[in-house]
Amino acid sequence: MFEWLWSESKSATTTIILLILATILSVRGADAEPMQLIVNGQARAFLLERPIVQGPRPTIIMLHGAGRRAADIAQDSGLAQLAPREGLVAVFPEGRGSRWNFFPPGKESAKDVQFFQQHGGLPDDVGFLKILVADLVRRGVSDPKRIYLSGLSLGGVMALRMACVDAGSFAAIGLLISAMAELTGASCQPAKPLPILMVNGTADQMLPYAGGQSIRGDSLWSAERLVGFFRRLNGCAEAAQQSVLPGTHPRRIEIERSTRCSGGPVVLYRIVGGGHDVPPGLNAGQVLLDFFRDKVR
Fold first, then answer.
1. Segments in the chain forming alpha helices (H)
2. CA distance 280 to 289
3. Cα–Cα 20 to 30 A to 100, which of 91, 149, 238, 291?
4. pTM of the model
């Protein structure tokens, strides 16, 4: 909360400027509770939005993309408003230097080590997210059986790293315009199946749908390979159901659903010709909430 100190000497112009600034901060998610945890002796930050209903609640943890902040994804995804309205807690962790360390230990690239040295050193983001989940449960904020992890772009790459090493903490995951890093996937052995929702554009130039090199130079799985990985993990024996999202959209949105799976559904929203963004006509926050609604660990 911000407290403004007023005096009779403040001019009308100053008052207007302060009011505009307060409005901007509120719009960008500054009204969420800013929280901190200590991880390996260093403070890590996150934003917390809670519903009116008290007690342990279903919780969605949303990871921002590279170059963005927790407040950005809280607003851009709509989850800061949508989740509490539907009785969910929404949590928006802050990456160090607006990035995530998704690398397995010892596999970090030299450029990423150099980057993080400018921001307090190489962060333990796996440890941060594990401690965050444990803290939310310990304080009675989150229902441990209904914690969902989602990420946008590099945030989704980090979410997949968590799925590989700590699947037991989550009831489902959601990926928006993201991909599996080869370094993560090479040793990925989730402890249990995980329902997963993916949204990918087939013309994405930053995290290519067909896999290969990302704009950062990381080697990536294709979206189809990632779908196949989770279909096997979740025991999806039958062919996926194909449909097209109804309504008028700038680009065709194909939906591939594998629902008859022993370990939970695998759903892909394929934006035909879509780039590295979520189409405005697709309410990604609501799509995530609708997918997570009945998922229980």
1. 12-27, 70-76, 79-85, 110-117, 125-138, 154-166, 182-185, 223-233, 284-292
2. 17
3. 291
4. 0.88
Whether 247 has a pLDDT exceeding 90, the answer reads no
Spacing of C-alpha 293 from chain mean position: 16
Q: Which two tokens stand for residue 207?
A: 């995290």
Nearest to 104, CA basis, from 84, 126, 86:
126
Asked if residue 204 lies in contact with residue 180, where contact means CB atoms within 8 angstroms, the answer is no
In which residue are the tokens 């519903």 written? 51
What b/e readout covers 3-20, taking b as 16+ CB neighbours within 10 angstroms? Answer: eeeeeeeeeeeeeeeeee
Per the document, the length of the chain is 297
Q: Give yes or no for residue 17 having a pLDDT over 70.
A: no
Q: What are phi and psi of 135, to 5 degrees?
A: -70, -40
Instruction: Give residues with Cβ within 8 angstroms of 155, minimum separation 6.
Output: 62, 63, 64, 65, 73, 95, 100, 178
In one-letter notation, the amino acid at residue 207 is L
Mean per-residue pLDDT over the chain, rounded: 89
What confidence tens digit (pLDDT) does each residue in 250-289 have? 899 999 999 999 999 999 999 999 999 998 889 999 999 9
Element (H, E) at 253: strand 253-258
Contact 178, 222 (CB under 8 A): no
Instruction: Please give the domain boundaries of the chain with CATH numbers for all domains.
Output: 31-292 (3.40.50.1820)
pLDDT in tens, 95-106: 999 999 999 999
**SS3 (DSSP) at 124:** coil
Asked if 240 and 217 touch (Cβ cutoff 8 Å), the reply is: no
Burial class (CB in 10 A: 0-12, 13-18, 19+), 74: buried
User: Quick one: tokens of 234?
Assistant: 């979740």
- State residue 249's pLDDT score: 84
